[in-house]
Amino acid sequence: MGTKDYAAITGSINEGIKGLRDTGAVETLNQFTAMSKAAMTDGALDKKMKELIALSIGVATHCDGCIGFHTKALKRLGATDEEVSEALGVTVYMGGGPSLMYAADAWNAWQALKD
Asked: For residue 105, how many other CB atoms are within 10 A of its CB?
């Protein structure tokens, strides 16, 4: 089994989202975008910490798109290998073997998308 192409995965999802937006789900997608912006605004937790949490949830729920989008965001926010690794370690601790499988995928995505 090869490494997943997270750039292709997120690109394909973006195309699908555009299709949904173009065919009538505009208000739903606008509300989702607003919720995302509200949730990810700096507060007691900064944006990077929130993205680490989001990546962990993506791993725990086995969501390839979530892994791709949140690793890209972590790159933009200047996350380090150590921060991503520790967040993934907590995810494995809480989710066991299935989370370990997706944490390994998330690490590969991080390595591929961070540069």
From this structure: 19
96: left (phi over 0), alpha (psi -120 to 50) or beta: left
pLDDT (tens digit per residue) in 18-60: 999 888 899 999 999 999 999 999 999 999 999 999 999 999 9
Res 114 pLDDT > 90: no
**Cα 71 to Cα 61: distance, rounded to the nearest angstrom:** 15
Identify the CATH assignment for 6-113 out of 1.20.1290.10, 2.60.120.280, 1.10.4100.10, 3.40.190.10: 1.20.1290.10
70, 51 in Cβ contact below 8 A? yes
∠ Cα 56 59 65 (to 5°): 110
Q: How many CB atoms sit inside 10 A of residue 95's CB?
A: 19
> What DSSP assignment string belongs to 15-69?
HHHHHHHHTT-HHHHHHHHHHHHHHTS-SSS-HHHHHHHHHHHHHHTT-HHHHHH
